[in-house]
Amino acid sequence: MEQEPDGTQNKEMLITADTVLFFDMDGTLVDTNLSNFHSYKKAIRFVTNSDYDLTHNPEKRFNRSALKNVIPNLTEKEYEKIIQKKEKYYEDFLHENKLNKKISDILFKYSKTNKTVLVTNCRKGRALATLNYFGLTDKFAHIFYRQFANNDEKVNKFQYAISELGVSPNLVIAFENEEIEIADAKQAGIKIINPEIT
Predict the structure, then answer these.
(1) Residue 153 carries which DSSP code?
(2) Which of 50, 78, 107, 137 is most buried, judged by most C-beta within 10 A?
(3) What is the predicted pLDDT for the residue at 14?
């Protein structure tokens, strides 16, 4: 890859015909935080019969850990029921999702010429509902959903996708917003993550 005199990558040379583009969904391609929050809130109300005073924080995704912190006295059965209901209610709030224009423009442009791949930790049903809502499903050559190892440990989604596709990590450009996932991308051998593409 060519570099400019100041050491930065030549943006015009960044994507070649062989480049494979990996896109994360939640927080990267689509801002799903608000719909996720409302899904949890509705599920919590259904399971607990209580209206907890939950406040949406646009900077922080409401997740399973947040659920346990906000309502620490949940039984394991209630906790699992909330997770199940949250997945079901998500489609009620699809209209709250916002497409990240900068990233989606890259997807729309390069899905015609390059292999574009969704690499998400999202469950299949929720991922497809989101992609279908925005008309993005056919923009991906491959879609990799949430994976778990035999011991229920989280799988490095980038390593998994690279292995399944049989591509070299040197050919991959990844778009990802979470620090822990960026670390996984680097561990998988991906060198170019979240570049500025013109």
Answers:
(1) P
(2) 107
(3) 79
Find residue 5's DSSP bridge partners: none
Could you tell me if residue 88 is inside a domain? yes
Phi/psi for 154 (5° steps) reads: -65, 140
CB distance 44 to 71 below 8 Å:
yes
Question: In 3-state terms, what secondary structure has residue 54?
Answer: coil
Residue 91 in tokens: 């489609």
d(CA 130, CA 135): 9
Nearest to 24 by CA among 139, 162, 178, 180: 178
Give the model's pLDDT for residue 198.
58
Task: Write the CATH number for 125.
Answer: 3.40.50.1000
Residue 3 in domain = no
Strands (E), 11-160: 20-23, 30-31, 98-99, 115-119, 142-144
Tokens of 92: 């009620």
Last residue of a domain, one of 75, 96, 117: 96
69 shares a domain with 138: no
User: pTM for the whole thing?
Assistant: 0.87
Based on the fold, state whether residues 155 and 59 are members of the same structural domain.
no
110 and 64 fall within a common domain: no
